[in-house]
Amino acid sequence: MTVSSTNSGANKFVLAIHGGLAGPRASLSADCEREVRAALRKSLQSGAAVLRVNSTGSVEAVLAAVKVMEDCPHFNAGKGSVYTRAGTIEMDAAVMEGAERRAGAVAHVKRIRNPVLAAHTVMTQSSAVFLVGDEADQFAEQRGLEMVDPSYFATERRWNDLQAWKSRQASQVSGQAATGSVEISRGTVGAVALDRAGNLAAATSTGGLSFKIPGRVGDSGVIGAGTCAENRTCAVSATGDGELFIRSSAAYSVSARLMYCGKSLGEAAQEAVDDIGTLGGVGGLIAIDRCGNVAMPYHALGMFRGTIYECGDPSVALYET
Question: Which of 84, 121, 188, 204 is catalytic?
């Protein structure tokens, strides 16, 4: 599915977000859908509020937008993160700005309420790009970020998913037929923005793959795989089968197709997503180019997503419409 739009004028800000891939529509209750849509609109409004008052606020806008989704239990990031097979929650996040291509990322963090803010702190308050594990948690705590007990991230829905997965694993070991279905989340949340000064930025945050091996790191925190920003080309945030996005350098490949192949944003973004499909996976991404054009292709049942332009209202979608 390809979703593209064009910015109507120069020197106008644009913000696009995603809340990860969507499962079967029948699995989404009416109440849950209303809450997801409301959270997506709130995310867009929070990012746009920054862009309205700060002409160079692309980085701050993507942080604000992603933070809203990290605080919402319906998304696989922050509060709604999935469990590893060991019953722990391990989160990754990254941010990148397009002017100087500065970037920051964290992975395997367990106590930072908003991992995307930790990624930004790595970018702005250290000489590193990527910090992981307990040291990343400690770095964030030392710099005054809000820390929480790991139990803060727990949700009944994700815990029940883990118990169902364990039950199926036990049935398979014993040779019994497994019953029921288990929801596997490959989702992330992300935002990309173009501010009035022409600066691009991208941010991505995730709880990772459901029932992953502890210590596994996906694409969200890997610059060039799930997150990328370059003022000369575009900003990208991805969601889906993380290993395949890493193997294909998917986010960077969109930028490279623009710079070296003369592709349009829509073509470049679609080709990157098609490549994930060729490798046998599912995924999607959101991208904004330096002219403010937006592309949101996905190779899945749906993708939670939204856009807002300076002269428009928030627009959100979950499936084809």
Answer: 188
